[in-house]
Amino acid sequence: MNFPSFQLTALATLLLGSGSAIAEEIIGEHIVVSGSRFEQKLEDVTGSVTVITEQDIERKLAVDLQTMFRYDPSISSTGSGSAAQTLSIRGVGGNRVVFIKDGRRTNDGYAGGDGYLVGRSYFDVAGIKQVEVAKGAASSLYGSDALGGIVVITTKDPSDYLLNENSFAQVALGYQGQSNQMSVDITAAKDLGDLGVSAVYSHRDSEEVQNFTENLPGYDAKSDSLLVKLEQQLDEKRTLKYTLDYFNQTTEQVITKASQETKDENTNWSLALDYDSKAATAAFDQWHWQVSFSRYEQQSDQISATAAHTDYNDYGFEQDILGLRAVFNKKIALQDATHNFVYGADVDIYDTTRPRYKTRLLADGTVDFKDQKQKAFPGADTSLVGVFMQDNIKFANSAWSLIAGVRFDYYSLAAKDDELYSDAELDDITESAFSPKLGMIYQVNDNLSWYGQYVRGFKIPPHDQAYQSHGVEPFYQILPNADLAPESSDSYELGMRFSGNDINVTLSAFYAAYDDFIDVAIAGVEPTFIPNVNKTFYQYQNISETQISGVEASVLMHVSDNVLVEANIAYVEGENKETDEPLTTISPLNGSIQLTTALGDIDWTAAWRFAKSQSDVVRDASGDKTTQGYGYGIVDLYASYEWQTWQLNVGVINLLDKKYVPFELIAGQSQGADFSQYTQPGRNFSARVSYQF
């Protein structure tokens, strides 16, 4: 870990030596919905949950997934800036993590190379109230896809802005250094009697996120987002909410004019109607239903030229989702125990297409072919139907609480008819599964509790893995696999939570065994007409058994009246039990330490994030070890100042200008390869200023 100890000591001395009182940063309790789909205290949840608040996003100047979870050692990301981004939770990521935004499922993604999942992460942080990440399988509540965890994004309602006011308005200007992003956010809300209205508009102009030596190909990006909500109070107990959520991002890259160009456009919009009722009946005390429609569309136009011809590629990915869900809550107080039931149903219908066309122009200007269909994977019609029930039980005169739940999912996947895939085996897939959950909490006293849980996870094969059928002749071919079995897991977690006046401590240990884990395998090799060149056949296949285990710890403590310390650390290991090789998705031992204090009217935070070297790595086909990871320590510095209705946040990222490469970006690659493209940006600055009317 290449970090001079005297530098950390100097930072600590600066902070601990301050004599002024820190702003009200007292350790508070979080209200979450990821544990039961209704609001509850975090201390009543079995399992680990990371919570990112609106204040966290502002103070750490977060603009995307990568910057949002920079200091959580159990959550890693691939991609940054305007590129596709993917989260990995405890070494499990991709489509195994389900994203929920304001109660509705967001779109799927598809493998885009280098571990990226194209189609995810296209949303704006403006207007976000809170982000929750429940770590580990959550299939018992949220169904298929939630094998690795869930990301629950909650945006602010009109009532969150208005509180006891009739109107609200705010303008914020921002700059984010690692992508030279300039942004403007405009927020307004109005109380119209029984109707509350809010709107959040955001515009961002940015460039590529460069590596340390700043020699990556450049591109320009811009995005616009609009979030409009209407909150109608029908009476004292019933509310209707109407939501329009729109996001559009365009990136343009020109390597050589008219010879090597790419323009990508991602558009994501949704409409939702939510109904909440607290009018109690014999069957429920409160209930919520939602109907939503979402459409995601990616359009990629590429120009690729050689001496003989110029190709114009028109690639797309489109997905429509119709979602219906109903969630009920009922509390029953008996003599021996109090039962808090949550039950309901989810229906999601997906219509997915992957259009790909190519036009080729020969060097003499002749059109060789026009709008020729290209293979990737055919479209698919997907249906997900799930019913669930969970009972949170608190026993009378006892320190024990019990959480028991189960979900039944039915899933069907059918490939669309397409003559381009007439020679491929594209059978329909139908699956169903029960996903139980059992958790316990033992409340030792008012400050200390222990918890444990078992969760059965279930993950359907995604459409692109089951039906992908294309290649580049004569070098490789990706074969579809309609016999893919669903992935499943048995996961266990034990943990401790301590909450005192000036300190919060959490510890957790977890273990998960995955059956039929899906990964790419070589299905065959055959010679080609080119001497010494073979054609390789790849196919997504099931791995019989994979295991992941680890420990996590976090401490949040006021060491004095004006100094707050937050420390997090995580160690995870994973193994393919078929080959006894480590998994390439696992991050090395890593963590973060943040110290916050106040100097005058300015709150300061110094953050140190670090990672240990990684020598336990997978071997290549020749039996040689692939590249290892090297340890690093990075220092960031933030400051926050508030004056009347003004707020200023500034940050210096990678203060000491360190060159480093996160191991998860290069895991599995050959030793001696050039990893300069994966180095992270050097020292950069960010700032945000806002004014509230």
Specify the helix fraction band.
under 10%
CA-CA gap between termini: 47 Å
Number of helices: 6
Tertiary shape: globular
Fraction of residues in β-strands: over 45%
Unreliable sequence segments:
1-28
- Rg calc: 26 Å
Main structural class: mainly beta
Task: Give the number of DSSP strands.
Answer: 39
Oligomer: single chain
Largest sheet: 22 strands, antiparallel, barrel
Q: Average pLDDT value?
A: 88
Topology record:
Elements: H1 5-16, E1 31-32, E2 40-41, E3 49-53, H2 54-59, H3 65-68, E4 75-78, E5 86-89, E6 92-93, E7 97-101, E8 104-105, E9 110-111, E10 117-118, E11 128-135, H4 139-142, E12 149-155, H5 158-162, E13 167-176, E14 181-191, E15 195-207, E16 220-233, E17 238-256, E18 260-277, E19 286-305, E20 309-333, E21 337-353, E22 356-362, E23 367-373, E24 380-395, E25 400-415, E26 429-443, E27 448-459, H6 463-467, E28 470-472, E29 476-479, E30 487-499, E31 503-527, E32 534-560, E33 563-576, E34 581-582, E35 590-599, E36 602-611, E37 632-643, E38 646-653, E39 684-692
Parallel strand pairs: 7-12, 29-32
Antiparallel strand pairs: 1-2, 3-11, 4-5, 5-6, 7-8, 9-10, 11-12, 13-14, 13-39, 14-15, 15-16, 16-17, 17-18, 18-19, 19-20, 20-21, 20-22, 21-24, 22-23, 24-25, 25-26, 26-27, 27-30, 28-29, 30-31, 31-32, 32-33, 33-34, 33-35, 35-36, 36-37, 37-38, 38-39
Outline of the structure:
The protein has 693 residues and is mostly beta strands. The chain has six helices and 39 strands. The protein is 5% helix and 58% strand.
